[in-house]
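Bench log. Compound arrived from synthesis this morning; before running ITC I wanted a structural hypothesis for how pyridoxal-5'-phosphate sits in the protein. Inputs:
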Amino acid sequence: LDPKTFAAESRPVIDFLSGYYRDVDKYAVRSAAAEPGRIRTLLPDTPPEHGDPVDVILEDVRRHIVPELTHWQSPNFFAYFPMNASTAGFAGEMLSTGLNVVPFAWAASPAATELEGVVVDWMCKLVGLPDRFLFSGGGGGVLHGSTCEAVVCTLAAARDRALSRLGHEAILRLVVYASDQSHSTFQKGARIIGIPPSNFRVIPTSAASGYGLTADSVQGVVEADVASGLVPLYLCATIGTTGVGAVDPVRQLGEVTRRHGMWLHVDAAYAGSALICPEFQDCIDGAELADSVSMNPHKWFLTNMDCCCLWVASPALLTSALSSNPEYLNNVSEGGADQVIDYKDWQIALSRPFRAMKLWVVLRRYGAAGMRAYIRRHVEMAKWFERTVSADERFEVVTPRRFSLVAFRLRPRHEGDHHAVDAMNRKLLVAINASGRVFMTHFVVDNKFVVRMAVGGAMTQMRHVQDAWELVKEKAKEVGALPTE
Ligand code: PLP
């Protein structure tokens, strides 16, 4: 790495990206050109024998790659959940990737490990978690790449805690619980850690509880399992479910899990960012009863991919499930496991990026007040969208909005035309996305096909949300929804 070449070749990349962000709203949000296998036909079969200049490479990115991307950073991207990019997130990522240190053990990069401890504590306080998740309170946090990874680690910790008491053979009796709205990662994670597939319980939710779990429903399923000799292990509570943004009542669920010696994980992957605003703090009430909590700054917290905060009340449970001490790493832990953190023991992989730098730069650059204002802006946009959809009698908001996600659909015109209304909403979503002007995705709740409008793009402003509504109305007419007049 030659420092002069490094500077000279980085500048055109920054210029390229700044041009991309200037023009990103001009691209079809989801590429109309993309076809399976097409990129392969545009590129050589083998890498070049001799390196290409950076401007030639950038030209290929411009010509071949950009036109076939889905533009997640477009202000008109309302699909899935947002994946924020920001100037500070990028600056932090540049510093992290530029320094390219690997903080798997304290001695492998002391400042990176220490900074990670500081940043996860800052986030813990901002999100309003109880002190037991702070290092000073006996808990602690780590930055993973994804919630999926965090979930597998907490499941492994819960499993080992139970098996150390019951013996290894008991693994076939352990049961993991989630709701029909929980993210699929819990089922996958349970499979990975060896829970028999028949011991994964999906507890139904309903419109009556806003698609959140109730303590009674969990209690009933858990008691039935206990009565048949099974061992309740782990419950996932979600703040802001992926489909409709539902919130599970953490306190009530925590009381159930405490009674049965279960592990309670709170998944706030998306809505965790909103918890920094006092008006959303009620959602996390009861967090002192949880064993672990996770949220993704890479979703709605202006932090470029990837970054997931995981906090645990008892780090020793996590590290006893995940630690390994091969000889070739012994020399890097001379501080002793008790005095320093070796983050390799808090995650699956050994090598890991310097994510703390990225999140630290975001927090420093925007500050807590800046982040609260950012979140509130999106919530206001979503409120406007919810109000406007509700005021149009052709449409309905399917479940009350909690954060910045609005799940809506064209209403049935008559009792019993369930299939017809689903088909019409499918057609509506296809027409909306085919326009290239926005990208939205769908969900099915209570057997209803609903369109999800997930507001939260870093470049999204009110006018983009208003334009999206105009487009929805235009396409509703095209697919044959009755006019309001
Ligand atoms: N949990 C919830 C509630 C989510 O919405 C998502 C992703 O959208 C995940 C977990 C998975 O997150 P990740 O992609 O970081 O694994």
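What the model suggests: The chain has 15 helices and eleven strands. Residues 94-363 form a domain with the Aspartate Aminotransferase; domain 2 fold (CATH 3.40.640.10).
ITC booked for Thursday regardless.
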